[in-house]
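Handout, section 4.2: multi-component inputs.
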Amino acid sequence: MPRTLLVIGTRKGCFLLESDDRRRFALRGPFCEGWPVYHAVYDPDSGAIYAAAASEWHGSAVWRSADLGETWRHSSEGLAYADGGRKLSKVSTLAVAHGRVLAGVEAVGIFESRDGGETWSLLSALEGQPGRERWDDPASQPPGRLGVAAILPDPDEPARFWATVQGIGVFETADDGRTWTPRNRGLRAEWPREHEEVGFCVHKLVRSSADGDRMYQQNHCGVHRSDDGGLSWVEITEGLPSDFGFAAAAHPHDRDTFYVVPLDPGHGRCMPEGRAAVWRTRDAGSSWQRLDRGLPQQSAYLGVLREAMAIDASDTPGLYVGTSTGQVFASADEGERWSEIASYLPPISSVEVAILD
Amino acid sequence: MPEVHLPTTLTPLFAGLPRRLQVDAGTVAEAIVRLDERWPGLRDRLCEPGPALRRHIHVYVDRERAGLNTRLGPRSRVDVIAAISGG
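Output:
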């Protein structure tokens, strides 16, 4: 059986969990000298691991390991705005595709590296979008100040990708960041918005590997589906215990199967009633099933952040969920049964999975 | 030659970087440049664009709080401190 690698970003460094059977996992770490890691990813083409980290003392950098965690280097060369006015406070997210690494940062911008994270240059700051002049103002940003919170590359077209700006919405570019189009039509927002096309709080955007036109998102206000590659959205929240949550995952082989982790929307942002569950739809959101077998069902006030759920591409996909209190839960059967594979990690910000040959 | 004392949070980031070393420099900024020449990227860990010392990096020259432009004497002691931060 191939080896499964989980790359875990936490508030105190990066960890790796490895397994030969997706049931028993061995832990390695912490890596990155214990720096807070916002997002850690694996590049299947090069075999490298990248971690976006920010030290309170030493600033933001992207760490890289080319040997599955044995050795690490870091760099922030070029990860700064040249105009002097805007300040890069953190690298919030990473994406690897087509031989380059993309980094989403706050203040809002996307940097790229074409040399494996050694040097970086600004690719786009999404200039010209509606209300753009106010996006970098701390007073108008949501807590966390993520800026570009996620980047979703197209697997076939290098110049095409989507970027999520925290509290603003999703944008698509087809020309490598030169021009952008808001992709938020049909989304719901429960606050006044100055511009028709933006002002939406997209927590997690995913795209089906089985059908590129099928997208899903967990929004601050509900769960939504798109059947036209993000051009329009319909809400599919009905049947879930909460319209709020952060994490989401799309089934790799079935475009109609999608997972979310509903949370209480107030300050707590934990799983409702202290009973842990992942929810799944198999019919594109017409109905939902609660998946909780093996998950704690009392006094379990667990939170799961936007990058902290992953699904692997096996024939029977495995699901992995990391919590804000340091547990990792895994299911080897599409969410039917769960087991706790790590219990005492630092607060988890991201979980990514790779199947190694 | 001035003697520079570095914090334990910095030394693991660069292979071979000692906690304490002598640096031929006339100012704090120059000392950091000299260190960056030997350990590329080190300057970014202590300074942000401007340049300015990072918010939680404090520098003392001969026990006095210092900035990048503070002058160093031939026997100065430079302490670079990663200021206390929450757990």
